[in-house]
Amino acid sequence: MAAAKIAPSMLSSDFSNLATEAQRMLDCGADWLHMDIMCSHFVPNLTIGAPVIESLRKHTKAYLDCHLMVTNPLDYVEPFGKAGASGFTFHIEAARENWNELIQKIKAKGMKPGVSLKPGTPIEEVYPLVEGENHVDLVLVMTVEPGFGGQKFMPEMMDKVRKLRQKYPSLDIEVDGGLGPSTIDAAASAGANCIVAGSSVFGAPEPAQVISLMRNRVEG
Ligand code: DX5
Ligand code: ZN
């Protein structure tokens, strides 16, 4: 079984104090920092780009798990590699024509490739990306429509996680959207090992408790 990774989504942090917020999450036991990159074409929201990753990288050695909700992910590979991103997860809906080239370029820039899918996209679409010679290291199953934090977890997405886990016992399977103490069991029992959580962690009086509770549930 792949190791548990708890990844607070910095989208719920105070962006005016990003470095401090990142360190606070690491001190609370976070394994990764989840960075939500949105262009307003792929989703109806706009967040941060490579310059912010570059600034944050000067303050931390942490694994920066970048989730690119953008229309042209290929255009972002070079700048994100230079900025110091650790993981580069693109959406299959934005890369149906060029995912093979994209994976190669992400690896060539020293980042870990990942693929994400929206709730409406069937899981079978990502199998070729997990199995190819140039394969992704992680599949991110969206459990809300991408675009905003604080939405409700979609339990019906757990079928996708179960199918993936059955096929790929050691793959990193990440879930993102509406995860917290009340939904972690569904995700963990389906086989997710990487847990993104924004509002449940940042909104908690003791984020460390939420992080450790989720880690315990994943580790079973
Ligand atoms: C949504 C983002 C998520 C989001 C999660 O498009 O990909 O990472 O910030 O936030 P919560 O945990 O509040 O649903
Ligand atoms: Zn995300």
From TrEMBL:
Reaction catalysis annotation: D-ribulose 5-phosphate = D-xylulose 5-phosphate
Cofactor(s) needed by this chain: Zn(2+); Co(2+); a divalent metal cation; Fe(2+)
E.C. numbers: 5.1.3.1
InterPro entries in UniProt: Aldolase_TIM, Ribul_P_3_epim, Ribul_P_3_epim-like, RibuloseP-bd_barrel
Positions annotated as active site in the UniProt record: D36, D176
GO molecular function: D-ribulose-phosphate 3-epimerase activity; metal ion binding
Gene3D superfamilies assigned to the protein according to its UniProt record, in alphabetical order: Aldolase class I (3.20.20.70)
PANTHER family in UniProt: RIBULOSE-5-PHOSPHATE-3-EPIMERASE (PTHR11749)
Protein name per the record: Ribulose-phosphate 3-epimerase
Taxonomic source organism: Linum tenue
